[in-house]
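Module 6 notes. Inverse folding takes a fixed backbone as the condition and produces residue identities as the prediction. Think of it as a translation problem where the source language is geometry and the target language is the twenty amino acids. Below is one complete input and output pair. Work through it position by position during the lab.
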């Protein structure tokens, strides 16, 4: 059933305007809002998705909702829910099908489950919606309830789809065939890339890029003392030296050789921030390309022997470690595959040679506190020599945006969403085949060995995020889209 997400965002636009590198973006947003918001007077926007934590949508909505409210457009965030486990199994399959993988067979039982859960949630939200309100449905999970509410109430209905694939296949056709009767009910659809727009929505769709909040706990600057404190408090680095803040209630855990996850001690300490680190932080999802990245790292480590390399390069390759980190699987309600995917990675890890196991860290990040989880991700990205996002498919990939903002050397796949951000050789590097461990290993070695090049890529990447992928631009485009479509 429907739950309201209580948002506690301590920072307002004035706080951002005080920073010289953000003041111009705030000014532009306020100027545009003064022109557009009056046309939306008396309306309320309902943002609806399927989870309050875990994944890019849940990352973006708190600041976007808060900002729209501050600009004068009343906006509320609610999350759909159900006790029917088959619903999220189905929507995860639809998610994979839209990305071109999985069994395209969808049964009558699947349709009944989707229709039933959609009806229950629509009935619950219907009691709260006013006749002039605006409904924004994020992704396929709540799409069915959006179509029902449009039919019953006649209110404006926007479908914001954050996922997609830049090719046509039996899998994508099966997913969109299932979703089409619901998606066709929307007044307007919004995607992250033009390649994602299905043909039946081509005449009523537009683009809004996902975005990050530069002052969120995940993206804010961390002073050396704060960075070390987060690493220590989270259990991501061990030190005999004390820090002022107390340890987090629940610390990160690292996979042990016996297959269990446990807090790190001196023996299992990753080596942050002293060693060169290659990091990927993602949901535990097969489409994130964890296994090819792991294989690439093994090849990188094994390449030390039998080659003539400089002493500095040899030491770098000997000391480099790989961190694969993601949220504790049980905490992400709409992703039932996470536990099995992590289990596959555990099995792959246990098959590694012992000497390589020491240099691979599978890390589970607790989700009990959003603030602490975000700071853990921030610290891991800040301490990385190279941040990788080896997604086989990716709707957009905010982990890429986050690392670009932190001026890291970023290595991404050719997935369409990542190509929207990284211009190869300008903002980072792109892998032509994310399933090819040797190519990944070669690119990693090249980036690790070229510190001046990584710094230059990082500087350009931060500027690109500033210009295109900050929440101020996203909020402005939402206001433009809503106003234009409602006046059309």
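Target side of the pair, the amino acids:
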């Amino acid at each position: 059933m429907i739950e309201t997400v209580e948002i506690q965002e301590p920072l307002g636009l004035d706080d951002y305007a005080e920073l010289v590198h953000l003041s111009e973006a705030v000014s532009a947003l306020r100027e545009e809002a003064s022109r557009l918001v009056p046309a939306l007077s008396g309306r309320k926007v309902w943002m609806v998705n399927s989870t309050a934590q875990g994944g890019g949508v849940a990352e973006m909505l708190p600041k976007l909702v808060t900002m729209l409210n501050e600009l004068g457009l009343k906006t509320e965030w609610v999350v759909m829910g159900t006790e029917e486990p088959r619903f999220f199994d189905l929507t995860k399959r639809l998610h994979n099908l839209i990305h071109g993988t999985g069994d395209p067979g969808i049964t009558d039982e699947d349709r009944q489950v989707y229709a039933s859960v959609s009806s229950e949630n629509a009935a619950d939200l219907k009691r709260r919606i006013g006749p002039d309100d605006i409904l924004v449905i994020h992704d396929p999970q709540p799409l069915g309830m959006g179509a029902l509410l449009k039919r019953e109430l006649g209110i404006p209905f926007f479908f914001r789809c954050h996922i997609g694939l830049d090719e046509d296949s039996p899998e994508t056709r099966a997913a969109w065939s299932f979703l089409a009767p619901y998606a066709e009910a929307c007044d307007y659809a919004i995607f992250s890339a033009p390649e994602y727009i299905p043909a039946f929505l081509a005449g009523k769709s537009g683009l809004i890029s996902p975005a990050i909040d530069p002052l969120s706990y995940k993206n804010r600057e961390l002073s050396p003392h704060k960075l070390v404190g987060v690493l220590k408090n989270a259990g991501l680095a061990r030190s005999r030296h004390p820090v002022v803040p107390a340890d987090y209630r629940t610390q990160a855990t690292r996979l042990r050789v016996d297959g269990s996850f446990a807090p790190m001690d001196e023996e299992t300490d990753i080596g942050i921030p002293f060693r060169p680190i290659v990091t990927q932080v993602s949901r535990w999802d097969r489409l994130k390309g964890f296994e090819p990245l792991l294989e690439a790292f093994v090849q990188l480590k094994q390449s030390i022997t039998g080659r003539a390399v400089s002493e500095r390069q040899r030491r770098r390759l000997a000391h480099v470690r790989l961190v694969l980190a993601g949220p504790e699987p049980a905490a992400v309600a709409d992703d039932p595959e996470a536990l099995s995917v992590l289990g596959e990675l555990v099995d792959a890890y246990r098959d590694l040679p012992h000497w390589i196991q020491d240099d691979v860290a599978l890390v589970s990040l607790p989700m009990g506190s959003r603030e602490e989880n975000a700071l853990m991700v921030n610290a891991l990205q800040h301490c990385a020599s190279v941040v990788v996002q080896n997604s086989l498919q990716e709707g957009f990939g905010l982990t890429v945006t986050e690392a670009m903002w932190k001026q890291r050397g970023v290595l991404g796949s050719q997935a369409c969403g990542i190509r929207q951000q990284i211009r190869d050789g300008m903002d980072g590097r792109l892998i032509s085949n994310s399933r090819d461990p040797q190519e990944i290993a070669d690119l990693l070695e090249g980036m690790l060995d070229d510190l001046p090049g990584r710094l230059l890529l990082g500087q350009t990447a931060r500027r690109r995020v500033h210009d295109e992928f900050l929440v101020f631009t996203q909020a402005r485009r939402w206001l433009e889209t809503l106003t234009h479509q409602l006046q059309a």
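Reference fact for the lab report: Residues 292 and 436 are 7 Å apart (CA to CA).
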